[in-house]
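Morning!

This is the sequence you dropped in the shared folder:
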Amino acid sequence: MLGLAAYSTVPYGETPSDITPANMPRIGTVDERFQAYNIEMVELIGVRFWKPYGSSAANDSKAQESARQEGFTPAGIDPNLYQYRAPIDLSNPRLRKLAAALSPAYVRVSGTWANSAYFQDSENAAPANAPSGFSGVLTRQEWKGVIDFSHAVNAEIVTSVATGPGPRDARGVWTSEQARELFEYTKSVGGRIAASEFMNEPTFAAMGGAPKGYDAASYGRDVEMFRSFLRKTAPDTLFLGPGSVGEGPFAIPAEAGNGEIVSGSHEIVYRKTTFGLF
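The structure's back. Tokens below.
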């Protein structure tokens, strides 16, 4: 009581006025699809990821690892902290039931490995190893699992595209072929990508597999390429601004930046804690 009295603006001894929320003027609304959760691309394709606490050496056996998913470890991370993780089963009834309880929502499928994942746009068997410039392979079956999951739990898909050395031309400029194949396949099987970033965590571009010497000017150039691609290929997909993470020795050099990236009604700003759309 003393604490409440100390912060009250009502004179002592007077009855405060009633507050009736129903009579207050509405100044804004929050979309019912306001919350989201994340599925790491690494969980989807099955590669080396953070070891669970208490893992034994036997559980870290390379024999468990698929030959087509080479052991990529982000720059600056001790590889001993990682072990092979089998792909997640998005058809699991319990998982779907729990996820559906959060709906309507967004499901973000991205993360460090999304920057270097090769989309295998065919029904053929996945290659024995990821193509040069990529660190993992995302199959049609795996991505179809995301689409089926999104329908089952009423969660719209948010993602990012491959941005590492693989989808680049001889000059090191990002090309849209891999992104186009992913978007077109999604649409062909009845899916929809509600929103997309260009690169996962560009502030740590080197850690995320960006080409050597990649800086803010390079990022700005590539973002313009992606913006143009998105407007032409998927005009209904929102273009998300960069979701950053921390600062440090792997942060993208900022002094070469070329100005504002996110603007216009087609784009929204994306900020990330674990995952959030604001």
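Headline: The CA atoms of residues 89 and 195 lie 23 Å apart.

More detail when I'm at my desk.
O.
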